[in-house]
Amino acid sequence: MLLTFQQAKQQVLQSISTIKSLSHEKVRLFDALDRITAENVISPINVPRFDNSAMDGYAVRLADLKQSTLLPLAGAIFAGDDISNLYWPKGTCLRIMTGAPVPNDADAVVMQEQTKKSDLGIAFLNQVKAGDNIRRIGEDVKQGAIIVNKGTKLTVPTLSTLATLGMSKLVVFKKLKVAILSTGNELTPIGESLPCNGAIYDSNRFTLKLLLSKLNCEIIDLGIIADDPNQIKQALMSASSQADLVITSGGVSVGDADYTKTALEDLGTINFWKMAIKPGKPFAFGKIGNALFCGLPGNPVSTLVTFYQLVQPLILELSGLEDSSMDLSFKVKTATNLKKSVGRLDFQRGVLQINTQGELEVSTTGQQGSHITQSFNQANCFIVLEQERGNVAKGELVTVELFNALLK
Ligand code: AMP
Ligand code: MG
């Protein structure tokens, strides 16, 4: 019996507890985008740091307004002003700008649009309530509060908040070291001319580099290795001595030149090497020395699907992320028939769109063979078809999983 996808994923993620703990480093805030926090981030200050005005208008005391709704103007406060020595006579109001500090004894700021200015002063046209248009100290962020939990991936809004707090450096987990190599006598590096009719470009290693750099990994590129058991073993030994994770492409199936799996068996332990998914049935997972090992199938579509579905969550958790459940999935009607055979979980590629009735629907990108790279080009989602399901007719509900930022 093949492992189901869920069983395989569980085994992959469970292996993480056996890996050494990650070390930390301090980086500049600007370099922290997409990195993962290695400790809770505590706010050193209140935000706002002081009561300030939310509007351009007038600061008033309610007691003064009870006496008269027309108050003479006694001065002005601008953003950035120091008001510690401000003198504000009773029975008057103050001009105040957005972001300017509000005097302690002001009860409210009245927006300019609700006043009328004359030579006598400012007439207040509407009812004024205590606290109107005053942004209170600490109402956004309290000093001492945890702003970001340990194990969080840093986004633009989060880093923007930390900039508001005046932070310029941050402790994050060090980058995961990932070694990659391609196996296959047929492979030629991109940029070189193909030597013979049977040769193809090594697109997988290029793809893996892109994916790993998006996941903020340190990449150790060991190039192309021929289909030779000894060379593969040597490359894997070198890879596992340098990296936390080794990723290979090709050679994990049952062909006569597929040596990756046997090399893994000889050098380390194999956890599983087949699972009931399509594409990507041959996927070897195990360990060599202290490094985890993922052997991806060579077909480019299978490489991308297995990387996305299994290696991505593994890398995120190995990199220190606490919650790697990143998938946005839901059910919609399919606008096209979908070919499916019973027995494996399919990750077909689809286009989620809004039809002329304004409803969400999904369509296939066409041929779904594991060598049809075009099936990914137009896609914005996976159509995830259950293991026991057969052909799907137009109009049936299917599960759709929107691509996350890794594929955009
Ligand atoms: P394999 O998994 O080694 O049996 O390879 C399966 C298919 O993927 C074959 O058609 C290979 O030529 C192709 N393939 C293997 N490695 C790569 C690679 N690095 N880049 C592009 N195609 C590959
Ligand atoms: Mg091969």
Number of H- or I-type helical stretches:
8
Largest sheet: 6 strands, mixed
* Rounded average pLDDT: 96
End-to-end Cα distance: 35 Å
Strand order of the biggest β-sheet: 17-14-18-22-21-19
Main attributes?
alpha/beta; six-stranded mixed sheet; five-stranded mixed barrel; 20% helix; binds adenosine monophosphate; binds magnesium ion
Task: Describe the fold and architecture.
With 408 residues, this protein is of the alpha/beta class. 20% of the residues lie in helices and 30% in strands. It has a six-stranded mixed β-sheet, with helices on both faces. A hairpin with a 2-residue loop joins strand 9 and strand 10. Helix 1 packs parallel to helix 7, helix 4 packs parallel to helix 7 and helix 5 packs across helix 6. It is elongated and about 95 Å long. The model has no long low-confidence stretch (mean pLDDT 96).
Overview in brief:
The chain is α/β, with parallel strands linked by helices and 408 residues long. 20% of the residues lie in helices and 30% in strands. The protein binds adenosine monophosphate and magnesium ion.
List the SSEs and their pairings.
Layout: H1 5-14, E1 24-28, E2 41-42, E3 52-53, E4 57-60, H2 62-67, E5 70-71, E6 73-77, E7 93-96, E8 108-111, E9 115-118, E10 121-124, E11 134-135, E12 146-148, H3 156-164, E13 169-173, E14 177-183, E15 187-188, E16 200-201, H4 203-214, E17 218-225, H5 229-242, E18 245-249, H6 260-267, E19 269-274, E20 277-278, E21 282-288, E22 291-296, H7 300-318, E23 328-334, E24 345-354, E25 360-364, H8 374-377, E26 381-385, E27 397-402
Parallel strand pairs: 6-7, 14-17, 14-18, 15-16, 18-22, 20-24, 23-25
Antiparallel strand pairs: 1-13, 2-12, 3-11, 4-7, 4-8, 5-10, 9-10, 19-21, 21-22, 23-27, 24-25, 24-26, 26-27
Helix pairs in contact: 1-7, 4-7, 5-6
